[in-house]
Structures are given as structure tokens and as C-alpha cells.
Amino acid sequence: MGRYHIVGRAGAGSLIVEFLFREVGVEYDISFPDPADVKRPDFHARNPLGRIPVLICPDGHQIFETLAIINHITTHFDGLAPPVGSAIHDRYCQFMALLATSLYPAYHRQHHSHYYAEAAAFDDMRAKAVAEQAVLYDYIEAELAPYICGEMLTAADFYLYMLSRWDFDKAGIRANRPKLDALLTELRSRPSVSDSLAAQPRRRSTG
Ligand SMILES: N[C@@H](CCC(=O)N[C@@H](CS)C(=O)NCC(=O)O)C(=O)O
Q1: What's the number of domains the chain is made of?
Q2: Per-residue pLDDT averaged across 136-145, rounded?
Q3: Predicted pLDDT at 207
Q4: Residue 50: which CATH number?
Q5: Which CATH number covers residue 162?
Q6: Helical axes 87-98 vs 66-76, angle rounded to 10°
Q7: Minimum CA distance residue for ligand 1 atom 18
Q8: Best of 104, 108, 159, 163 to mutate for ligand 1, by most ligand atoms within 8 A of CB?
Q9: In this predicted structure, what is the pLDDT of residue 41?
Q10: By C-alpha distance, which of 202, 117, 97, 115 is closest to 160?
Q11: Quick check: is 207 in a domain?
Q12: Average pLDDT, whole number, for the chain?
């Protein structure tokens, strides 16, 4: 069987794919094309918005959108999601959707503001994104026990950890949120995370 190939960017959304493959012991290849190259029309066949990550599977089919890629990994490899059909799986899906459709886009608005507004509106838009994220982080803090799915560490915790890395005030999101603080510290020390981060080409982290 061939190997998975991740099309990624240092410190960006491809991290979750690396974290999860390392967690389940799958070897993979990864390339980090120049950001300008993923905006070229030929890359749009892989992702119409020219965004990463894209996962190329061993049989050649491709997946973009982190939620879909994570679903592929948790479907094909055990241990990263609760059993399908259980109430805790519903909770897992709910958090995955919340992270993918609310927390992630709020980081995108902060790091890629030019897609959304003229420069004069950047500060206001970024402040609103941070305020929305504060509500979400408060909710997550209240729900952690100690992981998103209770005693089971799942892909959702790794996803949350990746997103938190893009915050402009990393200490701020941990302040007064002791459960979140403990979770992020634990995740950072896992070999799957620390080894992935150590292997990133040098580049600033961004969503
Ligand atoms: N909804 C997409 C978001 C992907 C995304 O925004 N990727 C970022 C890197 S983390 C990107 O390619 N940004 C460059 C751009 O938007 O031009 C997903 O979950 O995969």
C-alpha cells in the first residue's frame, strides 16, 4: 500500500493531520508548497479556495476540509473518536462542528482579514472575532472533563489544541480557564504533537 501525502503549510491547518497520523502510528509524506502556488488555478482542482490542508490518500483520491480529513482518519484508524451511535459520539460531532465552523473561521478572519473587509474595518472585525472566541472558550472550559469527551482523549482535543496555537494572546485564552490550560499543556507534551511541531519547516504559525 502507498503512503498518505499531506499538502500543508508550516504551523497551519495541516498540523491536525500530522498529529492524528502520529497518534495512530501511520507514516506519511508531507509537502509544504509555496503559499503563492496553492493560489494557482491548477491547485484549485485540489481545493477551490486554494487552501490547505489537502490529504492525498494511498489510492489517489483526495480530501480537503479538515473536518472531512479528520473523519477519514477516525473512520479508518481506531482510538480517536467515540463509538458511532453513542451519545458521546454525538457530543464529539457537535464539538468538531463547533470548532470547524466557529472557532477556526474566527482565526481565519484575524489572520486573513483581507478576504473579508477593507483595511479600515480590520480592527473592528478582529475584535468581534476575539469576542466570539471568548464565548466559545468559556463554553469549552465549562464542558471539559478533563477532555472534550470526558475521560476519552479524541481528535477533537487535538483540533482544539491546533486552533489555540493561532491565538494572538495565547496566555490570555488560558487565564482563568484552568481546565483548558491543563488540556493544552498536556497536548503540547504528547509525542505526536511535539514531534510534529519539531519537524515543521521554519515559518510563523498562522491559521
Ligand atoms: N475550512 C477549511 C479552512 C482551511 C484554511 O483556512 N486553511 C488556511 C491555513 S490554516 C489557509 O489555507 N489559509 C490561506 C488562505 O486562506 O488563503 C478547513 O477546515 O480545512
Answers
A1: 2
A2: 98
A3: 64
A4: 3.40.30.10
A5: 1.20.1050.10
A6: 150
A7: 65
A8: 108
A9: 87
A10: 97
A11: no
A12: 96
**Grid cell at residue 10:** 508550516
203 located within any domain? no
Same domain, 75 and 103: no
Question: Does 19 map to a domain?
Answer: yes
Q: Does the pTM exceed 0.90?
A: yes
**Residue span of the structural domain in which 36 resides:** 4-80+193-198
Ligand 1 atom 16, closest CA: 51
97 & 50 share domain: no
Determine what percent of the chain is predicted with pLDDT higher than 70.
Answer: 97
Could you give the CA distance from residue 155 to residue 191 in angstroms, rounded to a whole number?
A: 15
CA 11 / ligand 1 centre spacing (Å): 12
CA distance 14 to 66: 8
Q: Which residues lie with the beta carbon below 6 Å from any ligand 1 atom?
A: 9, 12-13, 51-52, 65-67, 100, 104, 108, 112, 207
pLDDT digits (tens, 9 = 90+) for 18-66: 999 999 999 999 999 998 999 998 888 889 999 999 999 999 999 999 9
Closest ligand 1 atom to Cα of 65: 20
- pLDDT confidence tier of residue 202, bands split at 50, 70 and 90: confident
Kindly state whether residue 124 falls inside one of the protein's structural domains: yes
Which of 52, 103, 159 for mutating ligand 1's site (highest number of atoms within 8 Å of CB)? 52
Based on the domain organization, do 25 and 100 belong to the same domain?
no
Secondary structure string (H, E, C) spanning 73-87:
HHHHCCCCCCCCCCH
Residue with cell 483526495: 62
Task: Indicate which residue's Cα is closest to atom 3 of ligand 1.
Answer: 65
